[in-house]
Write a structure and sequence with these properties.
By secondary structure, the chain is α/β, with parallel strands linked by helices. The chain contains 17 helices and eleven strands. It has three domains: 144 residues, NAD(P)-binding Rossmann-like Domain (Rossmann fold), CATH 3.40.50.720; 140 residues, no CATH class; 75 residues, Orthogonal Bundle (Rna Polymerase Sigma Factor, Chain: A), CATH 1.10.1740. The longest helix has 23 residues. It binds nicotinamide-adenine-dinucleotide and magnesium ion.
Amino acid sequence: MRRISIFGATGSIGQNTIDLIRRDAQAYDVAALSGGSNIALLAADAMELRADIAVTAFPDRLDDLKAALAGSGVEAAAGPAALLEAASRPADWVMSAIVGSAGLAPGLKALEQGAALALANKESLVCAGALLLETARRHNARILPVDSEHSAVFQGLVGEDMDAVERIIITASGGAFRDWPLEDLPEASLAQASSHPNWDMGQRITIDSASMFNKALEVIETREFFGVRPDQIEVLVHPESLVHALVGFRDGALMAHVGAPDMRHAIGYALNWPERKQLPVDRLDLARAGQLNFRAPDDTRYPALRLAYEVLERGGLMGAVFNAAKERALDHFIAGRCRFTDMAATVEEVMARMDAQSDLIDAAMTLDNVSQMDHLARQRADEVLMQKAG
Ligand code: NAD
Ligand code: MG
């Protein structure tokens, strides 16, 4: 039996992971599940999968979780420290599917005890890529990509020599506002930004798809996962979301990964790696799909992409600044306190302000320094947005 844990179990990725586990439940021994405020779902899944412990991120929900788990034999816990304790419990495979930089510390703990870390939480690689990779190396642990594009690249590299790789192309649907007139973007509503043309995902990543902040994070993620130079990473708008990524080799060959948009493919690949097992995903009928379209991303429509390359150029802790400012700007947009286009403008302004403090940006990449930078960048984002509003 494989011992596994799922952090962010109640979210979109977490539920897709549980769907796969449930189909072969006797093969898995579940150590920990974590969630947020959906206590009923967390408790139901923990009991069904006979987890040792269930953790909610929110301390004020501990009593509810205890009540929901009463008599089940599943331990209940709450808060960031409990999350770290649960992540320290030995496991062979750990799904990192918390949304945002809150996923970083539990991911590091899982690597420290040698687990294979299936990484959906791209934010942790963006904030602290070198730290995660170094922690994995030191503990002989493996980080497996779960983001569909990076899983696609990972699969395209099997048996290949990295020296032969010329470029990596990740695709983007273009999000909800792909075909909107540019002048309408400032007025885009929360409901409009929260609907994705092709993928069914959590609300935050769906809005990040409309603004391309998601693809911007993925450009940085590509660099961290595969160690290529920024100029070797390209983004291509592909409205059908059927080609997930392409790897270009020095002989001119382009290897594409094509499949239906279903996260259970990438999750299942990471779960079964290095084997390929049968998965319950739709088989793509290309004759029915008919055509695949591609176009270059428009810099004016998607300023977040340019910022991602600036982050790579600057290096140091700028990734943590970029991600935290983006998370905070997104909080404000969701709360109705800023306009859609204010998000990228805010992140750009926060990056400029923090860049002036090079002693902070160039500090060593430790968890403490990354957390401090995350905190500072959120404060700066609040200041910038307050100024915009005032
Ligand atoms: P989601 O919002 O559906 O779920 C997020 C999970 O994290 C929930 O279990 C929630 O309770 C938990 N959580 C939220 N805030 C937390 C906090 N502060 N501390 C601890 N736990 C917290 O999100 P999702 O769409 O499943 O995305 C999860 C991660 O996977 C993100 O990093 C996202 O970028 C990445 N990802 C998602 C998809 C997708 O298809 N949904 C695809 C690729 C990558
Ligand atoms: Mg993706």
